[in-house]
Amino acid sequence: MSIRGLKKKQPKTFKVRIITVDAEMEFSCEMKWKGKDLFDLVCRALGLRETWFFGLQYTIKGMCTWLKMDKKVLDQEIPKEDPISFHFLAKFYPEKVEEELLQEITQHLFFLQVKKQILDEEIYCSPEATVLLASYAVQAKYGDYDPNFHEPGFLAHDELLPKRVLRQYQLTAEMWEEKITAWYAEHRGIARDEAEMNYLKIAQDLEMYGVNYFPIAQNKNHTDLLLGVDAKGIHIYSINNRFSPNKSFEWSSIRNISCSEKELTIKPLDKKAEVFKFFSSQLKVNKLIFQLCIGNHDLFMRRRKVDSIEIQQMKAQAREEKARKKMENQRLAREKQLREEAERAKEELERRLFQLEDEARQANEALLRSQEAAELLAEKAQIAEEEAKLLAQNAAEAEQERQRLEISALKSKEEKRLMEQKMREAELIAVKLVKESDRRAKEAEHLKQDLHEAREAERKAKQKLLDITRLNYPHMAKYPQYSPGDSRDANFDKGSIKLDLKDIDLKRLSFEIERERLDYLEKSRKFEDRLKELKSEIHALKLEEKQAGLYS
């Protein structure tokens, strides 16, 4: 057969894009493939065996629809695009995640989908619960908390809380991170699958978990109710309250569900109970509700039957896998603990080594300091010795100076005593001189008086002599050549001589008095000079005595 003939026999294909919660895949599908063929291909690619929870969802004309397994893919009303996009999502939810989700991949896909629904606010969650769920999500992503590695800001690029919660509380991103990290630090030792399972166990208790809501009406004209379908049954809600149902029909209490056109009828198991009828806006919505009811009811009945061999094998494998993982986790925990202990021991040894090195360094520094101190002390000792010698020399000099000062003081005292004695003598001499001066002044005054009296007497005698001469010899003046008066002339001459002699004595006396007065003034001036010299010497001696006292 030729290559050309082989090419002609190859089946025609079309491309599809499968979008999971965290990845995208592309496949080539044959034109005749049914929905189940494509679904099984995706499950095999993912390694998924719990296929009954999932489905392929697509959007057409703004409405989300699930791909039918028993019809050809291209015969269904799918988007006309290349490649055709389908979302691989959980279509039905388990009642108890811990018992029903056996495979780790199943658990991981449910964790990612529920987490996205909470962040997109399709499932309402209280702020406190969102922080706790966020801490488990961080544990699943980052592992155990390590303050040295997980520094502040390491959650800055992770979406962990719904925007509603962020708007409700005026907290900064750092404050939210601090709250999440406080819970995250307490999950130490929890593996990724355990953290995801803890997340799902908290989420399954939320009122809106696993519920598909559809607008309905109790009559053909009004849409005033919501119908919710989940793993436990069918619930009727008011349009503004998706938390508390007004009425519920558990799968165990429903006898029959029928769908015709836009009407859907729920018949309770109790035949006496009222049959519930409601209307939807479109036939497709009615069919979608009917499919979800059938699928959830089948799973509900399946849970209450004996497990099939496949399920038993899967549960056994899951138990073995959990036991193996538990042992592996325990081994890893022991290894981690031993490694941490070894690291702590290493850190302790490094710390001890660093401490010893530091102590050695400090000891070396102390030794160097002690050597420097010893050298410094030696220098100080030498300086102190030199200072001691200098002080001894100064002390000797000071002792000599003290002795000299004592001798000087004694001399000064002796000189002072002699000077005081001289001063006393000088004072006595001064007193005597004053007295002598007074006496001489008085004598001079008496002599002056006597001289004055003598001169007055002389003047009177001369006047009297002149008067007598004029009376006795009136013509002597005119005729001095006459001789008869020779004897009188001789007598007159004698009187004149006597007067001249007396006058000479007075002059001599005056001269002696004046000379004595000048001598007295000269002596007084010399004595005053001597007194000044004595005062200066006494003052100098007093200063020397004061200085000697201060120095001693």
Automatic annotation (TrEMBL):
As for subcellular location, the record says: Cell membrane; Cell projection; Cytoplasm; Nucleus
For the FERM domain, which residue ranges apply?
14-304
Q: Which CDD domains match?
A: FERM_B-lobe, FERM_C_ERM
**Which superkingdom?**
Eukaryota
**Keywords, comma-separated and alphabetical:** Cell membrane, Cell projection, Coiled coil, Cytoplasm, Membrane, Nucleus, Phosphoprotein, Ubl conjugation
Per the record, GO CC terms? Answer: cell projection; cytoplasm; nucleus; plasma membrane
- Family annotation (SUPFAM superfamilies): Moesin tail domain, PH domain-like, Second domain of FERM, Ubiquitin-like
Coiled-coil annotation: which residues? 311-464, 517-544
List the Gene3D superfamilies hit by this protein, alphabetically: 1.20.5.450, 1.20.80.10, Phosphatidylinositol 3-kinase Catalytic Subunit, Chain A, domain 1, Pleckstrin-homology domain (PH domain)/Phosphotyrosine-binding domain (PTB)
State where a 1,2-diacyl-sn-glycero-3-phospho-(1D-myo-inositol) binds. K68, M69, D70, K71, K287
Main localisation, per the record? membrane
Q: Which InterPro entries match?
A: Band_41_domain, ERM, ERM_C_dom, ERM_FERM_C, ERM_helical, Ez/rad/moesin-like, FERM/acyl-CoA-bd_prot_sf, FERM_2
| Protein topology in the membrane | Peripheral membrane protein
A molecular function annotated in GO for this UniProt entry is: actin binding
State the protein's name.
Merlin
Q: Which organism is it from?
A: Regulus satrapa (Golden-crowned kinglet)
